[in-house]
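Entry for the shared binder. Reason: the reviewer on the internal report wants the predicted structure included alongside the sequence.
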Amino acid sequence: MSESGTLSGPPLREAPDVGALTLGRVLTDQAAAFPGHEALVFDDPLFDGTVRWTYRDLADQARRVAKALIASGTSKGTHVGILMGNRPEAVASLFGVALAGAVAVPLSTFSPGPELSYLMAHSDVAVLLAQTSMGRRRFAADLVELCPAASGAGQVWDPSYPFLRHVAVFGPPAESGGLQSWDTFLDRGNAVSDVLLNAVEDQVDPSDPATIIYSSGTTDRPKGVLHAHQAVALQWWMQARLFGRDSATRVWSPLPLFWTAGLNAAMGATIAAGGTWVMQERFESGQALRLLERERVTEPHAFAHQARALEEDPRWPDTDLSSCTKVFGKSVFTRHPTVSGDVTWNMPVGYGMSETSSFFTGFPSDTPREKLRGGSYGRVLPGSQLRVIDPGTGQVLGVREQGEIIVRGPTLMERYVKRTRSQCFDLEGFFHTGDLGFYDEDGNVYFSGRRTEVIKTGGANVSPAEIELQLHAFEPVRLARVIGIQDDRLDQIVVLCVELKDGSEATEQEITSFLRERLASYKVPKKVIFLPTVRSRSTTAEPRCRMLDSP
């Protein structure tokens, strides 16, 4: 720790096992090191078969995507949307975008039409790569409805998405809605030589923008978090070490790629270790158990509600999970009769956010368990710095003094999309997280809570302001306030407290149906509480809502 009250991690040059710092080069190097090793395994519901890609396969497919993008007119900095679940084509698309020097924008498969439209417009995507459907969602049909011009044979010209020029979809032709097929898109790249693609890749720099991840944060609209290649690649290398992964690691995780944890911890850190990602597009407990057993998964990851669903599945006690050795103390997997966990491995503990591309502090998996019992989230990672300040005065605080956590370092975002750096950081380059915490004499960081109102439900962040904004368009509602209450399964659930206008009527189902058309499903309140209508000329009165117990 420096004299200025700044908690610093080790110098970045001392970070062990860090390789290439552009995403395309990470894959290129790993494909050279592990050409025939299995990289991705996927049971494909679109074509009813199991897909197995080696590292060579993944690199080849990523290069095909990159060539097709170049042939479609993308150049360095072009924004490319990826609307896919956890499937091999999504990973190939992400790496293909990186190889072409463009910026990958993974779009939420949870987003209904209006939210998807906002993300497409706000992110300025020029090319959109999607799958035709996923479960009950029909993405191709949604895209044709949002942008009818995309179903034509030529380029897209639509004032609602002024930068969008191409849309291509992967899936059965009958579901394409007239959108450009995946094969047609890839065939575009036949005119691009390997020499040209290699020259493009060589000009991609760690400082170039690589990804935009949308996070609900605490605002009324999702925020686009722009990261450079270095930030994301560093996370992959550092997390591979934090989790203790190597080429024998087989990770199962349904975390989606449009969340930082899915992009970095599930996929990126596995690729950086030369391991195998056993993919699941949509969580279903029966299929998950079959994958865990059949693919001999060594490191399973699930949110609390998913873990409970696994344990409650009737096939749970008879499933052979003996390969799952990288499990931790209170994990549901440690309670399975066939599991004998590696006692030297513990689930990495850390503090971070989308703005820091995931981990900012952490304890690696080989940390002794007694050290983890103190409630700390670990120490600042290499190259990064942390301060704790008085949120009212901005004064830098010292050891064990609680205040707002502010951070800066090589994995910090470049900025929010359509925000200047001065709007995102203070004059010294620190990002103010809105989180409360402190650090101790040994440099261990502790998280105390959030200054903001963000609700954590099922592993996802939900902004109350975003839900309340949508209800401005629902005529019967006069005032609405969204809160989170504790829940054993989901951590918190979203609850809406609403006051209707005098003389108006609305049911809980009508309100949730209205929101479901506009927001991702996990953002829709699980419960609606109707408060008495205030019959007054005053427009300043706000409803009060307090719940002491979870329903």
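Summary line for the report: The first strand starts at residue 7 and ends at 8.
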